[in-house]
């Protein structure tokens, strides 16, 4: 420590200008050199350092501003995307509800048309049964009539002889004559 104070004290005893010498005290010369370098750096580097720091500050502020703008933009896009998603969900729900109601409507229509078809088939069946019944009745009536006619003809042919046959024909011709006179 004594060497440091000695170096400052010895500064006052420097010889007058004109002579140049080397100071061999390392600690004294280092402190002097260091203080000179720091003084020069502070004097000349103050503006450069300030400019560097100002530039750095501006870049940081610009980055923060850009980040904030990007954040605001991202929030807006997120809100828009959420709105589109909600709209799409509502449309999907609407399609789902419409689809279910359409399916129910089609189901009811199909059931109703099936009942109508079954009713028509039942009517056709009943009409066919009625028609077949009527046809069977007509066939039975024709057979009964034919058999009755054949039986009557057989009875008449066995009971009638030629004389009775001629009298019946003459009586019928007479009746036709009377009918003709009445109509004229």
Categorize the overall geometry.
rod-shaped
Rg on CA atoms, Å: 69 Å
Class by alpha and beta content: mainly alpha
| Number of DSSP E strands | 0
Helix percent band: over 70%
Describe the largest sheet. Answer: none
One letter per element, helices H and strands E, the order comes to HHH
- Low-confidence residue ranges: 7-17
Question: Could you tell me how far the N terminus lies from the C terminus, measured between alpha carbons in angstroms?
Answer: 181 Å
Overall average pLDDT: 82
Strand content: under 5%
Total number of helical segments?
3
Walkthrough of the structure:
The chain is mostly helical. Helices cover 90% and strands 0% of the residues. It contains 3 helices and no strands. The chain starts with a helix and ends with a helix.
Characteristic key phrases:
single chain; 184 residues; mainly alpha; transport; hydrogen ion transport; CF(0); proton-transporting ATP synthase activity, rotational mechanism
Topology:
Elements: H1 2-11, H2 26-159, H3 162-183
Kindly summarize this structure in a few lines.
The protein contains three helices and no strands. The protein has 184 residues and is mostly helical.
């Amino acid at each position: 420590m004594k060497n440091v104070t000695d170096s400052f004290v010895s500064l006052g005893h420097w010889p007058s200008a004109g002579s140049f010498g080397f100071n061999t005290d390392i600690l004294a010369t280092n402190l002097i050199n260091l203080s000179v370098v720091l003084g020069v750096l502070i004097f000349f580097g103050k503006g450069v350092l300030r400019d560097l720091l100002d530039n750095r500050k501006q870049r940081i502020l610009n980055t923060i501003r850009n980040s904030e703008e990007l954040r605001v933009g991202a929030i807006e896009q997120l809100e828009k995307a959420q709105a589109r998603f909600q709209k799409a969900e509502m449309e999907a729900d609407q399609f789902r509800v419409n689809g279910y109601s359409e399916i129910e409507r089609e189901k009811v229509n199909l059931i109703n048309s099936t009942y109508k078809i079954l009713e028509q088939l039942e009517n056709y069946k009943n009409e066919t049964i009625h028609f077949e019944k009527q046809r069977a009745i007509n066939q039975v009536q024709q057979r009964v009539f034919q058999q009755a006619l054949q039986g009557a003809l057989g009875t008449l042919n066995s009971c009638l002889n030629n004389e009775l046959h001629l009298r019946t024909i003459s009586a019928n011709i007479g009746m036709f004559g009377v009918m003709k006179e009445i109509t004229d």
